[in-house]
């Protein structure tokens, strides 16, 4: 069964979803990408993360095709470019995303990364879209703890639904300060690149051995680790049915204390502040 994470407004969303970066870039791959996302939905991976940036709108089109006729089954996350994140341009950007996605409302709309637009203008833009029913809630991405504090200092800023940041076994910097800060606000983190983009730990012989001992695949071990505390959402991207099924198998997996302890040794947590990791 798919575990859930509860957003600040009380909405429960799947702890394990699907990413879409690099989808919609190649017409020849489109049918397979749509099929992979649909298979993921069938497996319960019903949170889908996309962005106007991915494939210059192509990933939103692929997502729209995948969810056609089953929009109600899906929790849809998309992101606005920082340069579009002001009162005027955000509406046009959101409407274009909605059209590509084939829906009239985005469940969670994120500022993709901090840019030049004053945060207060972005927040005002989000609120207006929410008032008008184009989005249900909003949040941010690639914000470190200082940016989060600035955001939460704004009137209404604490209505933020998530901070989407890079997090996996090989990149644990957020555990030093950002993750504890978010926990203090009861703010779930959404982990992008939870498989380290298929590199790093996933290829590490120590992780592969621990996964075999735990009777999991390496990807399942990485995903179960990201989701271990029930307040982090993982959004792996998978382009093949095998990968989709493998990842879906991580939903609800519990890690034994000895596995967790071995992972702490092989992939240690940060001991001091690190710059927020990004891709
Ligand atoms: N907010 C941001 O700035 C930001 C930045 C980056 C990503 N994201 C979001 O987060 C999502 C995930 O990040 P990501 O796509 O960069 O990296 P990722 O999910 O960590 O890794 C994706 C890679 O892992 C492979 N893979 C998937 N399942 C696997 C499995 N079970 N076994 C082995 N390999 C597997 C995929 O191959 P196949 O494709 O061949 O299956 C792909 O090459 C993105 O798609 C995007 O939606 C957000």
Automatic annotation (TrEMBL):
SUPFAM superfamilies: NAD(P)-linked oxidoreductase (SSF51430). CDD domains: AKR_YeaE (cd19138). It holds the Pfam family Aldo_ket_red. It comes from the Bacteria. Residues 16-266 form the NADP-dependent oxidoreductase domain. This is Aldo/keto reductase.
């Amino acid at each position: 069964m798919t575990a859930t994470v509860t957003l600040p407004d009380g909405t429960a969303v799947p702890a394990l979803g699907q990413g879409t970066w690099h989808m919609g870039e190649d017409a020849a791959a489109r049918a397979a990408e749509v099929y992979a996302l649909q298979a993921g939905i069938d497996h319960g991976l019903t949170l889908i993360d996309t962005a106007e940036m991915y494939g210059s709108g192509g990933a939103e089109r692929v997502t729209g095709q995948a969810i056609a006729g089953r929009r109600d089954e899906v929790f849809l996350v998309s992101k606005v470019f920082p340069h579009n994140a002001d009162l005027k341009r955000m509406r046009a950007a959101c409407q274009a995303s909605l059209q590509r996605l084939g829906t009239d409302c985005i469940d969670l709309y994120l500022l993709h990364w901090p840019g030049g637009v004053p945060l207060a203008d972005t927040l005002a833009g989000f609120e207006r879209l929410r008032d008008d029913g184009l989005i249900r809630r909003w949040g941010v991405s690639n914000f470190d703890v200082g940016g989060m504090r600035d955001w939460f200092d704004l009137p209404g800023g604490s209505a933020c639904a998530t901070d989407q940041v890079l997090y996996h076994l090989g990149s644990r910097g957020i555990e030093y300060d950002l993750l504890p800060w978010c926990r203090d606000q009861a703010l779930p983190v959404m982990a992008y690149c939870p498989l380290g983009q298929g590199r790093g730990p996933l290829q590490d012989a120590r992780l592969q051995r621990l996964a075999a001992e735990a009777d999991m695949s390496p990807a399942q071990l990485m995903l179960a680790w990201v989701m271990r505390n029930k307040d982090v959402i993982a959004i792996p991207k998978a382009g093949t049915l095998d990968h989709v099924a493998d990842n879906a198998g991580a939903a609800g997996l519990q890690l034994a204390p000895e596995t967790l302890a071995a992972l702490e040794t092989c992939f240690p947590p940060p001991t001091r502040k690190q710059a927020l990791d990004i891709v």
